[in-house]
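call fold target=Mast cell carboxypeptidase A-like
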Amino acid sequence: MKRMLLWGLVAVSLSVGFTRRFDRDKVLHVKPQDESQVNFVKYLSSIVQLDFWRPDSAHAIVPQMDVDFRVGAYQTENIQTLLEQNGMQYEILFQNVQEGIEKQFDGKPNSSNRRHSYSKYNKWEKIVAWTANIAAKYPDLVSRTQIGTTTEERPMYLLKVGKGSVKKAIFIDCGIHAREWISPAFCQWFVNEATKTYGKNKLMTKLLNRLTFYVLPVLNIDGYVWTWTADRMWRKNRSNSSNTNCIGTDLNRNFDSAWCTIGSSDDSCSEIYCGPAAESEKETKAVANFIRHNIQSIKAYLSFHSYSQMLLYPYSYTYELAPTHDELNNVAKAAVDALSSLYSTKYKYGPSASTIYPTSGSSDDWAYDEGIKYSFTFELRDRGKYGFLLPENLIKPTCEETMLAVKNISSYILRYVS
Ligand SMILES: *[C@@H]1O[C@H](CO)[C@@H](O)[C@H](O)[C@H]1NC(C)=O
Ligand SMILES: *[C@@H]1O[C@H](CO)[C@@H](O)[C@H](O)[C@H]1NC(C)=O
Ligand SMILES: *[C@@H]1O[C@H](CO)[C@@H](O)[C@H](O)[C@H]1NC(C)=O
Ligand SMILES: *[C@@H]1O[C@H](CO)[C@@H](O)[C@H](O)[C@H]1NC(C)=O
Ligand SMILES: [Zn+2]
């Protein structure tokens, strides 16, 4: 009996040991009907710390937008009362975020002894070992290079996937935002699917014979590690560039595209902090340098985020349409049709600024302005039921359908882009 009790304690401390807990924190959904309701939500966020899940800060809220935010347990009663007093309807997405965090794992959240799996969320040590293993297993198809190191000195490994020398290339990154776990899961799924079906699936074989895919499985590695070890809801990286107590830059506000103008913040405590300068972050710099060095061959840039089920293309930093808007729209439509063909998952698509909200310093705009004309950002599943806490049993369907979109875009590049 005593022994069992002890075992229980060990398991609990291994899995959730020193991490921040979210017991009885709630996630609320609101849809402000008009400007005054928008202002009310913004006002709430100024008096109480709200963790915005969608959009990623209060600034971006406009009427009729789906807005999800997490509220600390001790504030939920106040916030719900205030919403009710002001005639705002709300829905409770999570009654207890801590429970959601634990339910996200199939079975016990005992992550320390789990093997790497494509249908589970893998911690960084598992992913980094996997990058070496998959390159060793498929030496003709996959090679691993290091493009930089993170603030906390972790190596940033990039997988080059394809047969033979580089012709046309597609750059794919996952995990810019730490808490969007489905994104790194997709990058791993992609490489597995590519290697497993090469020589069997006709389209994949053709794609890998004639294109090179550069896959960065986790861009914000330090942040990702932090979500596993300390704070599941962490978004930014882990650098400390300011003389405040706030850590982290939003790497998707740190690229050199209208840097720190619209939809970002120069306050280091903000979740959308743009950093002290464009490309100030080592992770941003590593990716930007790699892309600049390979700009002749890279024809498409695909970046994976969650959540809200959207396929976005430039621009984010302006409502003006991109010069190649019509073509981007057609490619996005075809990709979304392909994606939806499997499970009827509904995706919106369009230019970022008007489809989601305006931001600056984002990687897709930067890539586009560097000359990569096929630049897309995916916001993967779901649309708020689980948000960042998408359960592991939804990894497979999410990745399967997303593969169809990526293959569709890739075959377009193969066929029409020189
Ligand atoms: C949890 O993981 C530890 C370390 O890998 C292992 O020894 C232990 O048996 C696991 N506990 C459960 C309940 O699976
Ligand atoms: C960040 O660095 C500044 C200046 O060195 C320091 O005052 C501050 O305490 C640091 N913040 C954290 C959270 O470590
Ligand atoms: C995080 O952001 C800081 C600036 O706030 C930057 O100096 C650092 O390189 C970044 N680290 C990572 C891992 O992105
Ligand atoms: C991509 O989607 C378009 C439009 O649905 C379709 O015509 C085309 O065959 C698809 N290509 C591939 C390779 O799936
Ligand atoms: Zn994101």
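return ok
Residues 1-17 have pLDDT under 50 and may be disordered. The chain has two domains: 18-103, 116-416.
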